[in-house]
């Protein structure tokens, strides 16, 4: 707490930011013509003006909530003995984050109600408003998305209000970030020609903006109460830098997809985007200057210096949020769907690219469908790993070169699978899908696991000395958590790895993953995560729960091979076409050809899956042999030191047993 011990909630700043952002949205929409009426006459002014302004207020409160949780969980210095116990300022800040999260929930509820009015023309006070709301929430995609986001905001709020441990605040932060994902999947960009990159760009843009803006607002709110505000600001600096880069890249990508040409820059929509870009450049310059001033203020009054400069950043960010709200309600110059004059109009509208040539071993390596979000992810993984290795070598520590090679190879393979031929053909052919599936589950994870990224991070990232939780502390906490102990149990990992195949392909999950971008993203994450977990349980060297005995690991591998064979044989001999409603939408109506491709995919799954599985068995066997050799050498060294005292004691024990008289019969 501050010197005065005051715990008065500092809600004036988020209120001012909300008002500034809302006023900016209203003024911008009025000036650009975005509020001109284009809907049915029965829609009222409440929906016309209230919806865009409420959406802006929702974005502000979401950012404030996320920012406060970020500061509490990762940035704020602490002097308590237990870094995971919330006390003092951090406890109060978690409660304040809960209050802000509840206001976020209320704004999100207002957005839901106003969206019902916009979609149906029903007044909020009309007799059938409740019925329309129920139908909207249950049957309309937008209604389900808004409801899910609203409930996640409420959950984050309740977690923050009830938090007494830092780990609970971390969960609240993750839930709050997750609440931003559903609305991002339904923004303007979700209807663009390049659907995948449009949605992904908007998602990255929304998350990076919320973390950057919210983190700065959280620092300013808590600065009067923190003992070392400058230290918290220093810790936030690299986070802000990454968010700034992601914000700029995703903004440029989204702008190009929405504009389509340089001439569109002169449209009202282009002018709004130009204003956002200019503000981003100014914010970057101010942030750079801010960091230099913070370093210079080491011996001055750091709290006053930080507040004075950060106030300018927060003001600019409020205007930027307001402009973003206006952009989201403006009509872009690019059409929301491909032209119907294209003979493959339906195909392109569904998958986002023109029909490729027939799949072959040549085309699968030459066809590309770049997923720019995953490209940035792979690049970030390689750069982060390289920086960790460089830090170790700078201080004279060694790191095996082959681990670096395997990590980079795994990242590059992941990039190709998710942006090359496998993903492109995986969206339009079952055989292509199986190639993508097997590579994600069986080829990429072993390479990444062999890179030992957690071990590298623990050696490269310094430990916190003020009882706060940084990246290293969170990694150790996760590695030794009960949740990971359950997930890392060999049976659980095997069920997630192999049992997921049965659940995925023989339930509606497969058609959902093929026909929706969200389903495809979740499918990709599941394949990669379950494969990584399974390989780590078998051959991983990173710290975590105790590993199972080597014989158990071999049994688990053989059991998964049996499950894979069962799924493959079932698909090869089956006469039921999976996702029967998806293929006709792509113009593929030959049922026999589709079944033949499905059988071909099953054979690919069996062949491609067994190869890496056998290599895993070989790796487990080699590890077992090396472990036995190390144990034997350790025993020999111990015997040399104590003249084989352990063996002598055992022999003496046997002699004592033999010298006992047999009991009388």
Automatic annotation (TrEMBL):
Annotated ranges, domain Copper resistance protein D:
231-326
Signal peptide interval: none
Listed under GO biological process in this entry are: copper ion transport
Residue intervals passing through the bilayer = 55-76, 96-116, 136-156, 168-185, 205-226, 238-257, 269-289, 309-328, 373-389, 401-418, 438-462, 483-506, 518-539, 551-573, 603-624
Q: Which Gene Ontology cellular component annotation is one that this UniProt entry carries? A: plasma membrane
Q: Name one Pfam family in it.
A: Caa3_CtaG
For membrane topology, the record states: Multi-pass membrane protein
Domain of life here? Bacteria
Which keywords does this Swiss-Prot/TrEMBL entry list? Cell membrane, Membrane, Transmembrane, Transmembrane helix
Location comes to:
Cell membrane
Q: What is this protein called?
A: Bifunctional copper resistance protein CopD/cytochrome c oxidase assembly protein
* The species this protein was found in: Kineosporia babensis
The lineage, from the top, is: Bacteria, Bacillati, Actinomycetota, Actinomycetes, Kineosporiales
């Amino acid at each position: 707490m501050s010197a005065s011990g005051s715990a008065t909630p500092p809600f004036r700043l988020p209120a001012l930011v909300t008002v500034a952002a809302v006023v900016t949205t209203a003024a911008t929409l009025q000036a650009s013509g975005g509020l001109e009426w284009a809907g049915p006459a029965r829609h009222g002014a409440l929906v016309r003006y209230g919806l865009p302004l409420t959406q802006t207020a929702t974005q502000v409160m979401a950012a404030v909530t996320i920012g406060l949780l970020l500061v509490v969980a990762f940035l704020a210095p602490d002097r308590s003995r237990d870094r995971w116990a919330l006390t003092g300022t951090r406890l109060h800040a978690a409660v304040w984050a809960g209050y802000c999260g509840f206001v976020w929930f209320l704004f999100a509820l207002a957005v839901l109600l106003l969206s019902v009015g916009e979609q149906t023309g029903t007044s909020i006070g009309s007799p059938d408003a409740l019925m329309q709301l129920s139908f909207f929430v249950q049957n309309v995609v937008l209604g389900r998305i808004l409801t899910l986001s609203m409930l996640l905001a409420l959950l984050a709020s309740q977690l923050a209000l009830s938090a007494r441990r830092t780990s609970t605040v971390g969960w609240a932060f993750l839930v709050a970030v997750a609440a931003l994902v559903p609305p991002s999947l339904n923004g303007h960009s979700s209807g663009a020609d390049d659907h995948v990159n449009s949605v992904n760009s908007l998602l990255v843009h929304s998350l990076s903006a919320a973390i950057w803006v919210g983190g700065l607002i959280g620092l300013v709110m808590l600065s009067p109460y923190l003992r070392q505000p400058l230290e918290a600001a220093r810790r936030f600096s690299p986070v802000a830098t990454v968010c700034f880069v992601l914000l700029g890249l995703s903004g440029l990508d989204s702008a190009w997809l929405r504009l389509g040409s340089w001439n569109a820059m002169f449209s009202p929509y282009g002018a709004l985007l130009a204003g956002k870009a200019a503000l981003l450049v100014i914010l970057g310059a101010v942030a750079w200057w801010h960091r230099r001033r913070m370093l210079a203020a080491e011996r001055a009054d750091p709290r006053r210096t930080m507040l004075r400069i950060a106030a300018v950043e927060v003001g600019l960010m409020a205007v930027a949020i307001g402009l973003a709200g206006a952009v989201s309600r403006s009509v872009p110059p690019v059409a929301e769907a491909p032209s119907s004059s294209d003979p493959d109009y339906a195909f392109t509208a569904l998958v986002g690219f023109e029909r490729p040539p027939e799949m072959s071993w040549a085309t699968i390596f030459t066809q590309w469908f770049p997923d720019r979000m995953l490209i940035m992810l792979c690049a970030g993984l390689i750069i982060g790993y390289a920086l960790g290795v460089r830090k170790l070598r700078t201080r004279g520590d060694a790191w095996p070169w082959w681990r670096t090679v395997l990590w980079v190879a795994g990242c590059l393979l992941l990039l190709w699978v998710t942006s090359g031929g496998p993903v492109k053909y995986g969206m339009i052919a079952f055989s292509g899908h199986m190639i993508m599936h097997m590579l994600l589950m069986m080829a990429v994870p072993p390479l990444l696991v062999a890179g030992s990224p957690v071990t590298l991070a623990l050696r490269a990232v310094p430990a916190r000395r003020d009882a706060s939780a940084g990246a290293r502390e969170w990694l150790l906490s996760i590695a030794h958590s009960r949740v990971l102990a359950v997930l890392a149990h060999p049976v659980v990992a095997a069920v997630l790895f192999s049992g997921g195949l049965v659940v995925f392909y023989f339930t509606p999950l497969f058609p959902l993953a093929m026909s929706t971008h969200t389903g495809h993203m979740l499918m990709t994450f599941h394949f990669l995560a379950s494969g990584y977990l399974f390989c780590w349980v078998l051959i991983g060297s990173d710290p975590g729960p105790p590993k199972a005995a080597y014989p158990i690991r071999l049994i688990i591998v053989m059991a998964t091979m049996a499950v894979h064979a069962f799924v493959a044989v079932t698909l090869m001999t089956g006469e039921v076409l999976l996702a029967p409603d998806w293929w006709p939408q792509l113009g593929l109506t030959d049922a026999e050809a589709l079944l033949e491709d499905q059988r071909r995919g099953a054979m690919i799954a069996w062949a491609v899956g067994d190869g890496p599985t056998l290599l895993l068995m070989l790796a487990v066997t080699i590890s077992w042999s090396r472990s036995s050799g190390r144990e034997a050498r350790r025993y020999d060294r111990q015997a040399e030191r104590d003249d084989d005292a352990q063996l002598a004691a055992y022999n003496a024990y046997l002699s004592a047993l033999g010298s006992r008289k047999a009991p009388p019969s």
